[in-house]
Amino acid sequence: MPINFDPQQKAWIFSSANPNLRITGAGIGNSDAGPVVGLMVTITTSLVRVARYRGRYILTDGYHRAHGFLRRGIRRVPALVGDVASFEGLGLPAGMLSQDTYLGERPPQLADYLDDEVAAEVEVPAMHKTILITGVEVNTSG
Question: Model-level pTM?
Answer without folding.
Answer: 0.65
